[in-house]
UniProtKB/TrEMBL annotation:
PANTHER family: NUDIX HYDROLASE DOMAIN-CONTAINING PROTEIN, UDP/ADP-SUGAR PYROPHOSPHATASE. Signal peptide: none annotated. Belongs to the Nudix hydrolase family. It comes from Streptomyces venezuelae (strain ATCC 10712 / CBS 650.69 / DSM 40230 / JCM 4526 / NBRC 13096 / PD 04745). It comes from the Bacteria. Its cofactor is Mg(2+). This is Nudix hydrolase family protein. Pfam families: NUDIX. One of its GO terms (cellular component) is cytosol. Residues 60-193 form the Nudix hydrolase domain. One of its GO terms (biological process) is ribose phosphate metabolic process.
């Protein structure tokens, strides 16, 4: 390792703020204020670096599993769907929560088949993202396969208006145009674009 790189690593590990020290919020306590089978809304007592306290609401969520496949033509399997919360349409990948006792990869395969009618081949982990870590502990685990087998109409056809194989080369422009609004999906698709097309 070069001397210049060593100096950079030392500087970035020690100079975390203008004062040369780490700035960190500290959770002192946390209690649940609402809970159902999908999520918990909690209230935390948080101490700021200057000693002040604040009440901070947060949402505890189950892990989310996401899966898609890329075919030999470098097309990616996607869903066109409406999200009523934001009242927006966009392209997404099949996704859903991991059920109790289910491993993440199995959940990703299950969700893909239920929502698209395509069963993925062997899945590869693509990336894990925290889409809104200032509010929730949600982690989205994205997987992909190099092949998929059509098993019939999707069991969860109500999830989307249509399913399609979309050319990977179009993904960056689609994101720029706002056609892939979900940050987790955009991140995964850009990673796939990089892996497959460079």
């Amino acid at each position: 390792m070069s001397l210049q790189l060593l100096r950079y690593c030392h500087q970035t590990s020690t100079d975390q703020s203008e004062g040369g020290k780490n700035v960190q919020w500290t959770k002192l306590s946390e209690r649940s204020v609402y809970e159902n089978r999908w999520f918990r809304v909690n209230l935390a007592d948080v101490e700021l670096p200057d000693g002040r306290h604040l009440d901070h609401y947060l949402i505890r969520l189950r892990p989310v599993a996401v899966a898609t496949a890329v075919n030999e033509a470098d097309e990616v399997l996607m869903l066109w769907r409406h999200r009523f919360i934001t009242d927006s349409w966009g392209w997404e990948l099949a996704a859903g929560v991991v059920e109790d006792g289910e491993d993440v990869e199995s959940a990703a395969a299950r969700e893909m088949e239920e929502e698209t009618g395509w069963r993925p081949g062997p899945l590869r982990h693509l990336l894990t993202v925290e889409p809104s870590n200032g509010l929730t502990d949600a982690r989205h685990h994205l997987y992909w396969a190099e092949r998929a087998t059509y098993t019939g109409p999707p069991e969860d056809a109500f999830e989307s208006s249509r399913r399609a194989w979309v050319p990977l080369k179009q993904i960056p422009d689609m994101i720029t145009r706002g056609e892939i609004p979900a940050a987790n999906m955009a991140a995964g698709l850009l990673m796939l674009h990089h892996l497959r097309l460079g």
